[in-house]
Design goal:
- This protein is α+β, with helices and mostly antiparallel strands and 516 residues long.
- The strands form five sheets. The chain has a five-stranded antiparallel sheet with strand order 6-5-4-3-7. A four-stranded antiparallel sheet has the order 11-18-13-16.
- β14 and β15 form a beta hairpin.
- The chain folds into four domains: 144 residues; 60 residues, SH3 type barrels (Roll); 81 residues, Alpha-Beta Plaits; 154 residues, Sandwich (Jelly Rolls).
- The chain binds adenosine-3',5'-cyclic-monophosphate (CMP).
- The site of adenosine-3',5'-cyclic-monophosphate (CMP) has 17 residues, from β15, α12 and α14.
Length: 516
């Protein structure tokens, strides 16, 4: 395609310039013919500058003949100037075409703009015109015409006010290069699109409705422009809302997975899904993702929204829409829904320490248990605090942690149907460790007041629990002791290192090693 165009241009160029060159070559002969004709017909000799002398034996020319001859000579000079200029223009245009083409192939497209090409061409045209004009009319001084005339300057200046404004703004844009061909730019009040061309007059933008938006450089220079460079990973934001009863951790995970694998979503940066606001109608979410090709962000946004819908639909997570929920408060406490109650009882039945309890006691315990949900990373009980309740894990994972230098060391991980918090509840001592939700976790909280009547009616339970408490306490003590020992060794090593450092002794030398 490009090769055919080049060939076509080359053929046109060769034909045109050959014809012009041929005319220029034959021009002296045409002049000579006219001169010979004048001498033979009127007996006049015409000098190259248009001067007329009478040939031997000829009559003196009339005023009329002299003026006509002068006119003919001048017309011939002007035709020659036009022919030379036509040749220069065709050469400059062809070379310009070749240069721009090569530059586009080698560098990023648009780096050499038509602006530079136009300015260079104009300079070459002016200089060529000077030279050609002076060669044809050596007696006429052109320079003072351009430098001396203030009036011409003012007239031209006024006429070209806008054009010059565009030109200088274009030059500033060229020097600054805030954007390039292929970048997506958004202009406040004008629109958004892909830059197609930057010229000395203005910028051509292809909008997303496939229209061309032409903005002059002088207008562009005054606007604030938002640029999304094409070689940059530009981000997009998409918003949606879910109902309050939907789990945030689950929603974030589902949406991230749905967005991550989309076409045009860059695999280099993981999409971010976060809560933007706790809105009046639901949880307001924001999804941020980075695009490989920003120019097609409309399609990508639409696809991302579609994928979010499907992913949430599959997981039965509902979108929030403007709603008003009126809660009518009832005076009597609502009994636990049967389903929830049975579920709690089922979980309590699977907890090892409650094995000695009868069905009726389990039901009594279920009636005083309250389910609580914790977000990943949330602290459920804090080490050192007073504790009047114990917990049973219903879903998720929790970590038991004790402090170790600058971080929290995990000493146990508890899953569904495991329990914790029994130590403080039974002994009245402060919490022996911190328990944190590792992922979104639901736990049953059983308060001392709820457990007391069951203990009173079932002393075996006290025994079985106290054995477990003893076991855990021993384990915890062993871990704390190991930790203390480690600490001591570390601090001893630290002291030794300080002394050796202070006396400039090598770190490897010990008492048993003889000096070298
Ligand atoms: P409590 O001391 O009330 O609060 C912290 C809880 O962490 C504690 O009760 C135990 O239930 C639990 N815990 C302490 N040490 C361990 C351990 N080694 N393994 C599992 N759980 C533990």
């Amino acid at each position: 395609m490009a090769a055919t165009e080049l060939r076509k241009k080359l053929v046109y160029f060769l034909i045109f310039s050959s014809v012009v060159a041929l005319v220029l070559i034959t021009f002296p002969f045409i002049e000579e013919l006219i001169r010979v004709y004048m001498t033979e017909k009127f007996g006049l000799i015409i000098a190259p500058n248009g001067g007329v002398t009478v040939a031997e034996g000829g009559a003196a020319p009339s005023m009329m003949t002299e003026t006509t001859i002068g006119l003919i000579v001048n017309v011939l000079h002007i035709v020659k100037i036009l022919l030379w200029m036509a040749l220069v223009i065709s050469i400059v245009r062809f070379i310009g075409y070749l240069v721009v083409k090569t530059a586009y192939r080698n560098a990023a497209q648009g780096e050499i703009s038509s602006l530079i090409k136009t300015i260079l061409s104009i300079i070459i045209y002016i200089v060529s015109f000077f030279i050609i004009f002076q060669s044809q009319f050596p007696g006429v001084q052109l320079a003072p015409l351009f430098t001396g005339s203030t009036i011409i300057g003012i007239v031209v200046g006024l006429a070209l006010q806008d054009t010059l404004g565009n030109l200088f703004a274009g030059l500033a844009l060229q020097a600054d290069q805030p954007f390039q061909v292929g970048d997506v730019i958004a202009l406040a009040g004008h629109g958004t699109g892909v830059v197609e061309n930057v010229s000395w007059r203005g910028v051509k933008i292809r909008t997303f409705q496939n229209k061309l938006l032409l903005i002059s450089n002088s207008v562009l220079g005054k606007e604030s422009i938002e640029v999304a460079p094409k070689n940059n990973l530009n981000a997009r934001l998409v918003f949606f809302s879910t109902k309050y009863n939907e789990s945030p951790a689950k929603t974030a995970h589902v949406v991230r997975e749905a967005v991550r694998l989309n076409e045009n979503v860059s695999p280099k940066i993981r999409p971010i899904v976060r809560i933007r606001a706790l809105g009046t109608d639901g949880i307001d979410w924001e999804v941020k993702y980075w695009l490989d090709n920003y120019a097609s962000y409309n399609d990508s946004d639409a696809l991302v929204r579609q994928r979010i819908w499907y992913a949430l639909h599959r997981e039965r997570i509902e979108f929030a829409f403007p709603t008003r929920t009126i809660h009518i408060e009832e005076k009597v406490a609502e009994p636990l829904a049967e389903e929830v109650f049975n579920n709690i009882a089922e979980h309590l039945n699977r907890v090892s320490i409650f094995a000695p309890l009868s069905d009726e006691e389990i039901e009594r315990l279920a009636a005083v248990s309250v389910a609580k949900v914790y977000a990943p990373g949330e602290v459920i009980v804090s080490m050192g605090q007073e504790g009047n309740s114990m917990f049973v894990v219903i879903s998720g994972t929790v970590k038991v942690q004790i402090p170790e230098l600058s971080y929290q060391k995990t000493i146990g991980t508890l899953h569904e149907n495991d329990f914790f918090g029994e130590m403080s509840l039974l002994t009245g001592e402060p919490r022996s460790a911190t328990v944190v939700a590792f992922e979104e976790s639901e736990v049953l909280r059983i308060d001392k007041s709820g457990l007391k009547p069951i203990f009173e009616s079932n002393p075996v339970l006290v025994e079985s629990i106290s054995e477990l408490v003893e076991e855990r306490r021993a384990l915890l003590a062993a871990q704390i002791e190991a930790h203390a020992e480690e600490e001591e060794q570390r601090s001893q090593k630290g002291v030794m290192r300080s002394i050796k450092g202070f006396f400039g002794l090598s770190a490897r030398k010990t008492k048993s090693e003889p000096p070298a």
